[in-house]
Design brief:
303 residues; alpha/beta; Metallo-beta-lactamase, Chain A; 8 helices
Length: 303
């Protein structure tokens, strides 16, 4: 009865505020996900391309990634308030990329602990100026309120958070997709939030170390999970099939770039041919794959 009363109160508060809650789906009891659209950064970017969401426990709520702008984070907060009046105790960031963390400021009034990988503060500091400049250029006034909020609590290896009869196990990973990747496992439901360590449908993007990422994929495959929430794309009940598809793309890209270098091909020639066998399997392949190959080529030249 108390929980029902709290929910009714939360709905009324949201309506009074006149806010528009973000559309979310309850993929497992107490676990809500908003799936971002498959668009790239650029002229039509609107800050809503990443999978973000929240987990409701008996005592508190944890946000897992907050979106690409303050406005998206605010809409996510209103989605929470439509479902519970419990406090937002944690805002967890799975990595440094701006489409996942610019909504952090929308939760400031909740006074949560902001939690991230132990290297996330450094990554934010390195990118803050360029991220904000790019966001303002792309969105103009729609970027208002967006700012990078660094973590107040760091994960060195593994950290367990208790939301009340619901534990989240956070794990920090070596350099892979980025140098600040974090996963979140909900023990009760067996749901694994991977952040961008897993892409479904959308072409994976490399901003860390491809060899490290391939190694992490092997470890993720051994983790027991009944449901996986990727950083981009559809929630899946078949984690290992999704991981294997991503592994195949990354391995093909790696092999093709290495082959181009070994055969003495220029960077332009190599980029035009790299991972073409994977092209029809992924969304946004042309743009993202070219960037990936351009990142890899100068690194692999020195192997």
């Amino acid at each position: 009865m108390l929980r029902q009363s709290l929910l009714i109160a939360a709905v009324l508060l949201a309506r009074v505020a006149g806010a528009t809650p973000l559309e979310v789906t309850e993929v497992s009891p107490g676990i809500f996900v908003h799936q971002g659209v498959h668009e790239d950064f650029g002229e039509h970017y609107h800050g809503d391309i990443a999978n973000i969401g929240f987990v409701i426990g008996q005592d508190a709520v944890a946000v897992i990634d907050s979106g690409g702008t303050y406005a998206v984070g605010k809409a996510l907060r209103e989605a929470i308030r439509l479902r519970t009046a419990l406090p937002v105790r944690y805002v967890i960031n799975t990595h440094v990329h701006s489409d996942h963390i610019f909504g952090n400021a929308a939760f400031a009034e909740d006074k949560p602990e902001y939690i991230g990988h132990h290297l996330l503060p450094r990554a934010i500091k390195q990118r803050a100026e360029s991220y904000l400049a790019n966001l303002t250029t792309m969105l103009g006034e729609a970027a208002n309120g967006s700012r990078l909020v660094p973590p107040s609590r760091l994960v060195e290896s593994v950290l367990t958070l208790d939301l009340g009869s619901r534990k989240l196990v956070l794990r920090a990973w070596p350099v892979a997709h980025t140098d600040s990747d974090l996963t979140v496992m909900d023990e009760r439901s067996g749901t694994l939030w991977t952040g961008d360590l897993l892409f479904c449908e959308r072409t994976p993007s490399i901003d860390g170390d491809i060899l490290g990422w391939l190694a992490v994929i092997q470890e993720l495959a051994t983790m027991p999970a009944r449901l996986v929430i990727p950083g981009h794309g559809q929630v899946s009940a078949d984690k290992n099939t999704a991981l294997e598809k991503q592994r195949m793309y990354l391995q093909t890209l790696l092999d093709d770039v290495r082959r181009g270098i070994k055969e003495g091909r220029t960077m332009t020639e190599t980029l035009s041919n790299a991972a073409r066998a994977e092209e029809k399997k992924w969304i946004l392949f042309g743009t993202v794959n070219s960037r990936n190959a351009a990142v890899l080529y100068p690194v692999l030249e020195w192997e």
